[in-house]
Amino acid sequence: MSIPVIDLRGAQVPGGARSAEVAAQLRAAAMASGFFYLRGHGLPQPLLERQFALAERLLTLPADTRQALDMRHSPTLRGFENLGAQTLDASARPDLKESFYCGMAYPADHPYVRAGYQTYGHNQWPAEVPEAPAQCEAYIQAMLGLSRRLMQLLALSLGLPENWFDASSGSPMVTLRMIRYPAHPADADARTFGAGAHTDWGAITILAQDGHGGLEVQTPEGDWVAAAPIEGCFVVNLGDMIPRWTNGLYHSNPHRVRNTHSGGAPRYSIPFFYEPDYFARIEAVPGTVPAGEQPRFAPCTAGEHLQQMYRKSYGMDAKTGITATS
Ligand SMILES: O=C(O)CCC(=O)C(=O)O
Ligand SMILES: [Fe+2]
User: Fold this and answer.
1) Which of 230, 223, 220, 227 is nearest to 253 (CA)?
2) 268 Cα distance to chain centroid
3) Nearest ligand 1 atom, CA 181
4) Which ligand places an atom closest to the C-alpha of 227?
5) Measured distance CA(205)–CA(221) in Å, rounded
6) Of the residues 59, 133, 245, 251, which has the fewest C-beta atoms closer than 10 A?
7) What pTM was computed for the model?
8) Going along 15-158, which residue ranges are E strands?
9) Rounded Cα distance, 279 and 58, in Å
10) Does residue 319 fall inside a structural domain?
11) Residues lining ligand 1, judged by CB closer than 6 Å?
């Protein structure tokens, strides 16, 4: 299996002449591994370059600055994540990556912010990088637009009206993450990864990666293939909400990272996670449950699903919050 390249030109906006063709390509990719490269997405290259420069700036701030803004001090898990804080694959060692998490600038009086729901509000910004909040918000808004368009094309690919998922996107849960992977240690064992094998939890992930490579995707046959960087392309993958929404027709395949190709340099990547509104109901859409069969997944809300996943991978107890494991 190779990861297909889908060109969005001609389908960037509703009614675009290539929309049906792109939707068909999406359907094929979604039924294979749930991974594809996206080119012709319309995002300006300088926006991406600026974001990588910011990632490097943030993730090389002094350790005490990053410690003071550790995500564990934030009720919604925004801020810095230490090396080894997350274990994406429970059978592997803790991940060899550090990252910075932020989300959309929801106003403080937004009902979801007031309620303290996961991903809404409460960003933690380092005073040393005053441009960070506005720059991240601009990047998030661009990525949110692209995600919403991809959801429309996914709707088309399922034979649904293009706007089918629009209503679920009211106050979306979005997470922007900037990741730094140190060079993979030469003496690392087979259970050591930059990011252990995992599936993503939300709806759509749009990943910008630097030129080093290191991301691998599991094929339906169980092999691992490299998602090597292609200039001008994002790597897009579907998260676990999509199989739930499509009764398992579309896939969210495992992937993992080892920074073994960079010649000793750190690798930077910038995943953007799009998830629908906290209260969006995730249940099989029309046409995906064969007549006479029961849906394969119990309906849930997007917020419930996401909260569960965060707590599991950061070793937190769902009732008492953060444990003393790190
Ligand atoms: O860094 C990468 O290439 C992938 C990161 C990833 O899979 C994630 O953050 O979910
Ligand atoms: Fe991932």
Assistant:
1) 220
2) 15
3) 1
4) 1
5) 22
6) 133
7) 0.94
8) 35-39, 79-81, 98-103
9) 32
10) no
11) 177, 179, 195, 200, 207, 209, 215, 255, 257, 269, 271
Summarize pLDDT for 2-58 with one digit per residue, the tens.
899 999 999 999 999 999 999 999 999 999 999 999 999 999 999 999 999 999 999
Quick check: is 63 in a domain? yes
Please give the pLDDT value at position 322: 37
ipTM: 0.99
pLDDT value at position 317?
Answer: 46
Domain of residue 116: give its range: 5-314
With respect to residue 322, please indicate whether it lies within any of the assigned structural domains. Answer: no
Residue of 95, 96, 205, 310 best suited for mutating to test ligand 1, as the one with most atoms within 8 Å of CB: 205
Q: What is the pLDDT of residue 62?
A: 97
Give domain status of residue 283, yes or no. Answer: yes
CATH code of the domain in which 246 resides? 2.60.120.330
Residue 309, pLDDT score: 78
Which of 257, 259, 309 gets mutated to test ligand 1 (max ligand atoms within 8 A of its CB)? 257
> Which one of the ligands is nearest to 193 CA?
1
- Residues in the chain, pLDDT under 70: 313, 315-326
Which atom, in ligand 1's list, is nearest to the CA of 215? Answer: 3
Nearest atom (ligand 1) to Cα of 273? 10
Q: How many domains does the chain have?
A: 1
Ligand 1 atom with the smallest distance to the CA of 235 is: 3
- Kindly give the residue spans of alpha helices, DSSP state H, lying in the chain: 19-32, 45-59, 63-68, 111-115, 132-157, 241-245, 302-313
